[in-house]
Amino acid sequence: MIGLLLIAQALPPVQAVQPPAESSLNAPLPQLTPAPAPEGPLLPLAGALEAARTQSPDLAVALERVRQAENNVQRAWAALQPTLTATGTLTYNNFPATIFTVTPGPPFFDVTEGSNWTRAGTLQFAWNLLNFRAFPALASARQQVDVSRLTQTQQRRELLLSVAAIYYSGVSLRELAQVALAQARATREHAVEAQARYEAGLIHLSAALRARIDYLRADQETRRAQFAYAISKSQLAALLDRRDIAFELAPPPQPPQEIRGTFRELLERAMQERPEIAAARANEEIAARLKTDAWAQFAPSLAVTGTGRYNDPPTNSSGEKRTWAVALSLTLPLYDGGFRYVALKDADSQLRQARAQTRSQGARIEDELRRAILDLDSARALRDEAEQALIVSRENERLIRAQFAAGTATQVEVSDAESALFQSESTALQQRLSVQLAGLRLANAVGAFDVAGGSW
Fold first, then answer.
1. In Å, how far are 195, 306, 400 from 204, measured between CA atoms?
2. Checking phi first, is residue 283 left (phi over 0); if not, alpha (psi -120 to 50) or beta?
3. Quick check: 300 and 130 in contact, CB under 8 A?
């Protein structure tokens, strides 16, 4: 004990240290970036999806295409319906008309001078009673409506998937901004402590400067995350056809629905429920019907026409102003330069093309499903590892800080521990987001996304 007292008396007293005049430590430490105030009410995920269904201009375009396809059905029906056309003319001639009138005796006709005005009217009725090409055209027009509806369903699912993905990404960025803010707060407190320890002569100037650098970097990460969160809200607003970002995002109360089953079971389900494969099969049937249309060009057509005319002055020798006629015509195409044979070959080619597109669509769906399953398994494994790394990083950061306070750890070790902790927290958030997004993509690959129109 006496020896310790003698050693303590021999040590010089602690002297206060002032940073050099040109040192940045003389400048006040910048204030912490505050957390942004809420810009509006909470927009839940269900509300965002519903807004996308009802307000998206892209879905409005797809709906109009369905209506246009329905109008094409009416056009196809028009080929089977009769037509009625009325035409009226009023003509002024520079010479008056000459009217011939039949008389009972010689000279058996009378010539008189008429008016310079000529009036004529025609009423024509036409009906194709037998038109074999109209029936495959009508069937194809009806099936095109189904294809348009399937395309609309596909676009709606892709839009809702984008909305959900951006929503989850925005939630992750908001949590990252909170983590960055907490990290910046801790590093600022440490920077203040490091400067005080430097001024007390306990650490070197470089250690205090390193602590201030760590705080400034952490504050930059906070600002970067806050701006990224605002950008994600802007992207979401664009999909919802909103002109503002006066809303906030929050984690959904329930996680995305988990899809279970073997690869073969999920593939069979996808082949039954994916609108893309259903549309490809419908296009294959439409292409097969082109062969029927090509053969119909060899068949005869039967049409009936009726015409009623009014001419003043009359143009016939009987002096009748009103005449009418009915005709029944049968048309048999004998030779058209080989056009019909080309149509048969083209129908075969388009059918082969449609079948190849169906096989290609099936291969793409299978590949998409396989990759979605692998992505989900990988995301889950990486998430579990990231959670373990986060636990270790938190423990290491607490230990290094305690050692620094005791004077047994350097500022470099503190900086490395803080950087590792922030990186671990950021990675853990990213991997949680990856699991959520991979689950959404798997649901979309199976065809279970937006099945009921309101389950997501």
1. 10, 110, 18
2. alpha
3. yes
Q: Are 222 and 177 in contact (CB under 8 A)?
A: yes
The one-digit pLDDT tens for each residue of the chain (456 residues) are: 344 333 334 434 445 677 777 787 778 888 888 888 888 899 999 999 999 999 999 899 999 999 999 999 998 888 888 999 999 999 888 878 776 666 666 666 666 677 788 889 999 999 988 888 888 999 999 999 999 999 999 999 999 999 999 999 999 999 999 999 988 888 888 888 888 888 888 888 888 888 888 889 999 999 999 999 999 999 999 999 998 999 999 988 777 777 888 999 999 999 998 999 999 999 999 999 999 999 999 999 999 999 999 888 777 666 688 889 999 999 999 888 889 999 999 999 999 999 999 999 999 999 999 999 999 999 999 999 999 999 999 999 899 888 888 878 887 888 888 888 888 988 998 898 888 889 889 988 998 877 444 444
Q: Is the dihedral of CA 190, 196, 197, 203 positive or negative?
A: positive
Regarding pTM above 0.85, the answer is: no
Instruction: Specify the residue for token string 């760590």.
Output: 214
Residues 6+ positions from 377 with CB-CB distance below 8 Å: none
Q: Where on the phi/psi map is residue 419: left (φ > 0), alpha (ψ -120 to 50), or beta?
A: alpha
Place of tokens 């990404």: 169
> Taking the CB of residue 260, how many other CB atoms lie within 10 A of it?
7
- The domains located in the chain, with CATH, are 31-80+132-298+339-446 (1.20.1600.10), 87-130+299-332 (no CATH)
Residue type, 73: V
Residue 313: asked if its preceding bond is cis (omega within 30°), the reply is yes
Contacts of 328 (CB under 8 A, 6+ apart): 302, 303, 304
3-state class of 305 per DSSP?
strand
Count of CB atoms within 10 A of residue 41's CB?
10
Query: Chain centroid to CA 125: how far?
Result: 49
Type of residue at 343: A
DSSP one-letter string for 84-139? EEEEEEEEE-SSPPEEEEE-SSTTSEEEEE--SEEEEEEEEEEEEEE-TTHHHHHH
Type of residue found at 14: V
